[in-house]
Amino acid sequence: VTRLPVTDASGKDVVGVVSAAALLGADNDSSVARWMTPPVRVRQGTGFDRLLGDLQRSPSQIAVMEGDGQ
């Protein structure tokens, strides 16, 4: 695993993505937020072409699918 999702305090919402390699060089007292990038957010039903384009324009390599909360 080279990319790690970072969740909010409830553990239900992905608020960012951290590279495991970046964390290896981090100081113990540094905040995870410093190394975090925002995830690409997509809705259910998003086409592959749209998703691929969104990922290519983003520094993130992970997409988070947003649904209806079920």
- Uncertain residue ranges: none
Strand proportion, as a percent range, falls in: 25-35%
Q: Kindly report the spatial arrangement of strands forming the biggest sheet.
A: 1-2-3
Q: In which range does the helix fraction lie?
A: 10-25%
Main beta sheet: 3 strands, antiparallel
Contiguous helical run count? 2
For the termini, the CA-CA separation is 27 Å
User: SS-based structural class?
Assistant: alpha+beta
Question: Could you spell the SSE succession in H and E letters?
Answer: EEHEEHE
Rg, Å, rounded: 13 Å
Short description:
The chain is of the alpha+beta class and 70 residues long. It has 2 helices and 5 strands; from the N terminus they run ββαββαβ.
Protein traits:
alpha+beta, 21% helix, globular
Structure in words:
The mean pLDDT is 88. A hairpin with a 6-residue loop joins strand 1 and strand 2 (14-19). This protein has two helices and five strands, in the order ββαββαβ. Helices cover 21% and strands 30% of the residues. The strands form two sheets. The protein has a three-stranded antiparallel beta sheet with strand order 1-2-3. The protein is globular, with a radius of gyration of 13 Å. It is of the alpha+beta class and 70 residues long.
What's the helix and strand layout?
Elements: E1 3-7, E2 14-19, H1 20-24, E3 36-37, E4 40-43, H2 48-57, E5 63-66
Parallel strand pairs: 4-5
Antiparallel strand pairs: 1-2, 2-3
